[in-house]
Amino acid sequence: MASNAAPGDFAPVIRAEYERTDLGDAKLEDVQRKLPLAETLWNSAAFRKTLILLGLAMIWQIYGVWLDNPMIFPTMGETLSALLSNIANGTIPVRLLATLKVLVVGYVIGVILATVFTTIAVSSRLGTDLLSTLTAMFNPLPAIALLPLALLWFGLGTPSLVFVIVNSVLWAVALNMHTGFLTVSETMRMAGQTFGLRGMRYVVQLLIPAAFPAILAGLKIGWAFAWRTLIAAELVFGVSSGQGGLGWFIFENRNLLDTPAVFAGLLTVMAVGLFVEGVIFRFIENRTVRKWGMQRG
Amino acid sequence: MSSQETNRLDRRTASRPAQDAEPSALLNINGVTLQYKTPDHLVTATYRVSFNIETGDRFVLLGPSGCGKSTLLKSIAGFMPPVEGDIALKGRKVKRPGPDRAMVFQEFDQLLPWKTVRENVAFPLKINGIPNDEADRRAAEMIQKVNLAKFLDVFPHMLSGGMKQRVAIARAMAMRPDVLLMDEPYAALDALTRRKMQDELLTLWEELRFTLVFVTHSIEEAVLLGTRILVLSPHPGQVRAEINTHQFHSSNADSPEFAATCARIRGMLFGDAATAH
């Protein structure tokens, strides 16, 4: 058949046709089998992260014991007991609550302003220019750098802190929100318009949910900025209406050379950060972008 | 119904120049020139295109890429005002998008990912002031008609491409539009699914008798789905011909007549004298 074909010159090899009418029952032993326990555990991100945390804690404890100088570097045990006693005597909860109150006020104002700015930005070209110019100016500026000015304008107290937090949240959230709006597909926009969606309803019922993954990313970044900025601001001055926050707690205890309490304060800052990221934002993600298939993982 | 239909077909087969727009037609496209700007060019998509669409037509805009067929459909939808000529639906000039001209797009992301199948279909109804329970009822009914009753409360990302397009059709039809605009809705589907969807669309039309404007670059799809085909030539898009294809169904898609019609259109589009009957 291929006898007269030149080398490298392939002709199709003709074979007999066949057709199966009776496919019978496919006999497979396991169509689905459970993975071994070790593999299931190793597949869980929570399990792997717990292992890493335990490892870090062990290194910390060993180094602390070896150094044996609680004023410079307390062991994990000393830190935990300082943390527990400060929680038990109500100091940390009260300080934390004071900080969170300021944070929530600043965060909410910042997010509302960001929404207003972004809505203006998507409704006109001049608005877009305004937003991009302002974000270009203020986003790279550490909000904490505005604190001296804020103190001059609003005095020593909550309003100054709120002003600084609003600045740290506003630009990051507005930038992400605007990017999110811009990435909404042309098809989805046109679909919305054929339904008769216009104006504010178009923004609220189409653009915001469609851009929600980017908006959520902005909210997370804004939260992290706000939290960092607030703790830093409280380190500079903590006495707001007689009651300092968590940052002030850290600063006070450093002055008292109570290093385990300083560590306890830092741990609390981290714990709040982890809680907001891992529980609150995770919850929102599960209820929205993950459920809608707009974000994987 | 059938005598009415013959009447309409008779009226239409009587040759008439496309320019004298019949005010009685459902949709009048009269001397429409469409242009759009790219960063460095002004592109003329269609040049003085005229045609009429009657109620109950399955009107196909057919042509190679660059003939402006999609642009023309977007203009009918109200997204793009003509630089010359005008488009009128029921005698009223089309100015902006609206629920009387529902549109089904090629892209699967036309469904809103944050709404379930039922919510997606009911959403435009609710926006247009139809009470919630009535909207939900109509949505469920239309989803039933596109054979997705089992998927009422599923989010779009869990559906296959063909199912998403069915939802988009249900959503458009639930609005009870004057005309259903479809922009290459099956182009992104695999061949087997596409064929099935075409049959389903014809079945749905038999049941509901809506007016359809369908854009495609597939000659076979045009001949199978259309009652009348507007053949457009490219660069810029101009009307090459209007052809009747109401006699073709999926049952005679294998017939020599079907093949001959396809060949005739192919000849028009590619200027091949041998295939043009």
UniProtKB/TrEMBL annotation, chain A:
Location of the ABC transmembrane type-1 domain: 92-285
Keywords: Cell membrane, Membrane, Transmembrane, Transmembrane helix, Transport
Transmembrane stretches, start-end: 46-66, 102-122, 134-154, 161-182, 202-223, 230-251, 263-284
Gene Ontology BP terms: transmembrane transport
Signal peptide: none
Record localization: Cell membrane
Major subcellular site: membrane
A GO term from the CC aspect: plasma membrane
Membrane topology qualifier: Multi-pass membrane protein
Protein's UniProt keywords contain Transcription regulation: no
InterPro entries xref list: MetI-like, MetI-like_sf
PANTHER family xrefs: ABC TRANSPORTER PERMEASE PROTEIN, ALKANE SULFONATE ABC TRANSPORTER-RELATED, MEMBRANE SUBUNIT
Family label: Belongs to the binding-protein-dependent transport system permease family.
Name the record gives this protein: NitT/TauT family transport system permease protein
Species lineage: Bacteria, Pseudomonadati, Pseudomonadota, Alphaproteobacteria, Rhodobacterales
TrEMBL record, chain B:
SMART domains named among the record's database cross-references: AAA
Record keyword ATP-binding present: yes
Span list, region Disordered: 1-22
Residue ranges of domain ABC transporter in the record: 27-261
Gene Ontology molecular function, alphabetical: ATP binding; ATP hydrolysis activity
Pfam families named among the record's database cross-references: ABC_tran
InterPro entries xref list: AAA+_ATPase, ABC_transporter-like_ATP-bd, ABC_transporter-like_CS, ABC_transporter_ATP-bind, P-loop_NTPase
Source domain of life: Bacteria
Keyword set, alphabetical order: ATP-binding, Nucleotide-binding, Transport
CDD domains the record matches: ABC_NrtD_SsuB_transporters
Family: Belongs to the ABC transporter superfamily.
PANTHER family with a match to the protein in the record: ABC TRANSPORTER ATP-BINDING PROTEIN (PTHR42788:SF10), TAURINE IMPORT ATP-BINDING PROTEIN-RELATED (PTHR42788)
Designated name of the protein: NitT/TauT family transport system ATP-binding protein
